[in-house]
Amino acid sequence: MNRLFAASCVLALGLLVPAYAEDDKDKGKGEKPNPAAQKTNLEKHGRHKLFLKRNEENNYKGNVIFLGDSITEGWEGSGKKAWKEYFGEFEPVNLGISGDRTGGVLWRISDGKEIEKLKPKAAVIMIGTNNMSSHSAEQIAGGVKAIVEELKKQKPDMKILVLGIFPRAGKGIAKEAKMAKADELNTKVPATNKILSKLDDGKTVFYKDISKEFLDKGGNLPKEIMPDYLHLSAKGYDIWGKAIKGDLEKLTK
Predict the structure, then answer these.
(1) Which one from 70, 98, 136, 197 is the annotated catalytic residue?
(2) Domain extents for the chain?
(3) Which of 2, 140, 159, 161 is 20 to 30 Å from the Cα of 129, by its Cα?
(4) 83-102: string of b/e by CB count within 10 Å (b at 16+)?
(5) Are 71 and 97 in contact (CB under 8 A)?
(6) Which one from 78, 135, 209, 231 is the annotated catalytic residue?
(7) Contact 85, 143 (CB under 8 A)
(8) Alpha-carbon distance 117 to 95, whole Å?
(9) In the annotation, is 135 catalytic?
């Protein structure tokens, strides 16, 4: 009887092994990595090097940091006057790099150590328009979420203002056109913003969409605000600055 019992136990265990093996095999399975949340190394980029140099010299301080692409970098160009007028009191730091995507920003704030020595009270994020041609709305929003999570990990006391991606025209808009009509605007932008709005937790992360501020009553995008229907004019930056100054006053208290 003992031998039979032992044999039965061995048989039972043998039958159980494949089941556990399957469970182990399934571990780690899941969705494919989000390409918009994969880090892009910008170590050799001139502006990245500039940011690090300023950090080392300890003269690149600020209560607010702005993270983004050429639209953010443009505060140093067409937006220079509005930058000083609306944000001067915050001693802001512009960390915008032309052509950047979500993966680039993610690398810059993590491996790139662009914010390591900074102690901002708030961060403004406006990124994702350069991802539009390669990634889905869900992927782009996921890339922004990865940035937010990294910022929260590094600077838990910092408030984060996530801005909805600004409206932009689709392809085929004539340069001489005075405006891009509402039905010519990129539809992936509002789809992405709808997902981004869910990042708002009312405590540390806040979402704001100022898209309508750039459009006329018919939902069209005037050239005087975005000359190429993507980048802002001085008037566009004035609209942006005026729209979020109050938010930054609250977030930096």
Answers:
(1) 70
(2) 42-251
(3) 159
(4) beebbeebebbbbbbeebbb
(5) no
(6) 231
(7) no
(8) 14
(9) no
Give yes or no: 69 in active site.
no
Q: Say if residues 225 and 232 touch (Cβ distance below 8 Å).
A: yes
Max CA-CA distance within the chain? Answer: 95
Give residue-wise pLDDT tens across range 19-51.
323 333 333 456 789 999 999 999 999 999 999
Calpha distance 49→60 (Å, rounded) = 13
pTM passes above 0.85: yes
Q: Tokens in use for 176?
A: 């001489």
Distances (CA, A) of 66 to 87, 94, 136, 144, 181: 11, 5, 24, 14, 30
| Cα–Cα distance, 248 to 151 (Å, whole number) | 17
CA distance 139 to 134: 10
| Phi and psi, residue 252, nearest 5° | -100, 5
Rounded CA-CA distance 209/182 in Å is 17
Task: Write the DSSP symbol of residue 117.
Answer: T
Catalytic one among 111, 201, 216, 228? 228
Q: At what angle do helices 137-154 and 102-109 cross, to 10 degrees?
A: 10
CATH H-level, domain 42-251: superfamily:
SGNH hydrolase (3.40.50.1110)
Q: What is the pLDDT of residues 93-151, one digit of tens each?
A: 999 999 999 999 999 999 999 999 899 999 999 999 999 999 999 999 999 999 999 99
96 with 220: CB under 8 angstroms?
A: no
Contact 120, 93 (CB under 8 A): yes
